[in-house]
Write a structure and sequence with these properties.
Layout (H helix, E strand, L loop, with lengths): L6 H12 L3 H14 L7 H24 L15 E5 L6 H8 L17 E7 L2 E7 L10 H9 L2 E7 L5 H14 L13 E7 L6 H11 L7 E2 L8 H12 L1 E6 L12 E4 L4 H8 L1 H6 E7 L7 E3 L9 E7 L4
Parallel strand pairs: 1-3, 1-4, 4-5, 5-6, 7-11
Antiparallel strand pairs: 2-3, 7-8, 9-10, 9-11
Helix pairs in contact: 1-2, 2-3
Bound molecules: guanosine-5'-diphosphate and magnesium ion (MG).
Guanosine-5'-diphosphate binds next to helix 4.
């Protein structure tokens, strides 16, 4: 006989009876797992729920192959880069979006609050970077549109909860979905996308122990950016890491004879040339480009540079072109 199940648990049991799809059932079962107290008395029940979830996941995966035509959410790319915030349930993904952008996602201490992706713009110095909050990565639940969205992004930010004792299981599930999405290569620690590892909730004292447990199994030791969304710890560092990983540079342009405004820079890939910049400004400019006067950050005298010149972050450029006929 199981003792002391919270009343909320029984509400979920009732919901489970009414749930129709395997996805809905898995979501409810995972919530039941989350609210169930973990002790000897609930061990058997925990096992039962786990095996139910495993069975449903198989069912869902089989069904997914044939089901088509459900509406697929898409988000238009904006700003200097697109970052997907992904990870297990309840790690603070929506909270991170809410604190770093003007977006207002739903936040709650139970899983599956976020069902559709939500974008927001992160201001980093004088540029904006698009962050997208997404539903949790879970085998059997995560839908293919999420994989597509991740593969089209610039960086996948994997947000982990460093206060979670079950972090290894969560990590395992996350990796399983990333493999299914062909973002992680099987049996290796290689990814087809840039991954930024972030550990949240470091306001909880045990975070270092949990990080160590994680690092014993996964080669991400010194890569995890430790943050607390709730207490605003290291969020500036995180923005800086995102900018670095994007590998872009800001280039300011000015009109001949006018003073520079030094705002709204072009953001282009690192190691771009003046020709690449000209192309980003206008396709005709690539043909008519003659030379540029170029100021390095903080210097007074311009240099004269040709189209092969490799630009650096914060260069100021004045392009001289032939008149179009
Ligand atoms: N202690 C702590 N709790 C946090 C932090 N960030 C988020 N949370 C809590 O974690 C729970 C899940 O947050 P949410 O943003 O909905 O997570 P999501 O499911 O990953 O989108 C909420 O109760 C948040 O208040 C943090 O930095 N520290
Ligand atoms: Mg959420």
């Amino acid at each position: 006989m199981v003792a002391n199940l919270p009343p909320h648990y029984h509400t979920k049991e009732a919901e489970l009876k009414n749930a129709k799809t395997p996805e809905e059932k898995i979501a409810i079962l995972l919530e039941m797992m989350a609210i169930m107290p973990k002790h000897k008395g609930t061990e058997k029940l925990q096992k039962e729920l786990k095996s139910k979830i495993a069975k449903l996941r198989k069912e869902a995966a089989e069904k997914k192959v044939i089901s088509r035509g459900s509406p697929v959410p898409t988000i238009e790319r904006e700003g200097a880069g697109q970052i997907i915030i992904a990870g297990p349930p309840n790690t603070g993904k929506s909270s991170l979006l809410a604190v770093t952008t003007k977006a207002k996602p739903e936040i709650a201490d139970y899983p599956f609050t976020t069902k559709i992706p939500q974008p927001g713009m992160l201001q980093y110095q004088d540029i904006q970077i698009q962050l997208i909050d997404t539903p949790a990565l879970l085998p059997g639940i995560s839908e293919n549109w999420l994989g597509d969205m991740m593969r089209k992004s610039d960086i996948i930010l994997i947000l982990l909860d460093l206060s979670d004792d079950d972090i290894l299981e969560k990590m395992e599930q996350t990796m399983q979905v990333l493999e299914q999405f062909k973002i992680k290569l099987p049996d290796t620690w290689e990814f087809t996308k840039k991954i930024l590892w972030v550990g949240n909730k470091i306001d909880v004292p045990s975070w270092q122990d949990i990080r160590n447990v994680l690092c014993d199994l996964y080669p991400i030791g010194n890569q995890i950016v430790p943050i607390s969304v709730l207490q605003n710890i290291n969020l500036d560092l995180l923005a800086e890491q995102i900018f670095k990983k994007l590998e872009i540079i800001r280039v300011y342009t000015k009109i001949p004879g006018k003073p520079p405004e030094m705002k709204d820079p072009y953001t282009i890939a690192a190691n771009s040339t003046l020709e690449d910049l000209a192309r980003a400004i206008h396709k005709d400019l690539v043909k008519t480009f003659r030379y540029a006067r170029l100021w390095k950050q903080g210097t007074g005298n311009p240099i004269i540079a040709g189209r092969d010149y490799v630009l650096e972050d914060r260069d100021l450029v004045e392009i001289h072109a032939e008149e179009m006929k």
